[in-house]
Fold Putative (S)-mandelate dehydrogenase.
Amino acid sequence: RNVDTIVCLDEFEEVAQSILSQMAASYYGTGCRFSLAFPETEQTLRDERESWQRIRFRPRVMRKMRHIDSRTTFLGMPQPVPFFIAPAGLARLGHPDGELNIARGAAAHDVVQVVSSGASASVDEIFGAKSPEQIMFWQFYVPSDRVLAEKKLRHAIELGAMAIFVTADVPVLGKRERDLKLKARSQNYEHPIAAQWKAAGASDWNAVKNRGISDIPDTAHIDANLCWDDIAWIRQRAPGIPIVVKGVGCVEDVELAAQYGADGVVLSTHGGRQLDGARAPIDVLVEVRRRNPALLKQIEVYIDGGVRRGTDVVKALCLGARGVGLGRPILYAQSAYGAAGVSKALQILEEEVQMAMRLLGANTVADLRPEMVEVSSPERW
Ligand code: FNR
């Protein structure tokens, strides 16, 4: 199928499913907890797709909608659109150019790519592929070995990372059962990023080099003792660089992130891959708005998980999100069509966002207000 025939993000997944290896499809697709015998599994993964439908619009008409401006800022940096590419590992499982496809597609639309610590290309390659003015952020899995942690952090900053997304929801890797099956069959698979760790001087490289995909990144490479005081540790080593805590699941932790001086949070369940049964991030955003709306002015609140439509992006913005991240759609787009697929996906989403704004009666992002949506389960308010 020609990339020009694609009209919505879900179609990239359809095309990708027909070409991806079973291992890649399982790694990309998996949530936590899966069994054929009991189909009601992967609860969080399913819930975050469905959650967007719990929110309906209250559109306004007769508002002069010819001109639409979807620009915003992330952490003070101007953006043409209120969405970004969420960090997702192992893009090369789907296409030989992997993360470089994502970098090139993002450049075509000035969309921020948050470069994953679990990428299958090195940070040098990925940041090396960016155009001079292109904004890239870097996602940080803080290793237990703080000498290595500091080295990785400083290196990403030297390469030009404009913000650090500290992933906080992986004190242990979730039980991703679709993927675990294939891990069993891939004992001798040498993981592409193991070599990078070796190059970065990871002391326990030998312990990880023959692990399956589900074991990577491993607990040795993500400090299970990460805590709020570590924001200051990172801040000291990344002066002037905004810090965003990724993987927050309740209002209390948004409050703590603000108290400890983070610049932003991402409400996220890691794409339903960590704690199965965790609430969909949009429900958490509703909770923040209900319990402590002032927080939305103190700290930038981002959200990801199950976003597939411009209307999803617009709903999140109405409820106070600053920006919305996309994980799997970008992996599928680059698997199916390389950089052209990423570019097409971003174009589709941009057009959908602008169309949704026009139909809703919002000329600018600032016009997207909570009164423009209704959340269908009132107890959630
Ligand atoms: C991820 N995610 C992720 N997050 C992170 O902080 N570091 C990482 O390396 C990865 N890797 C990763 C791989 C794959 C295959 C997936 C699907 C996800 C989580 C990601 O940033 C984001 O939170 C979710 O992907 C958002 O959900 P959707 O858009 O995939 O539904």
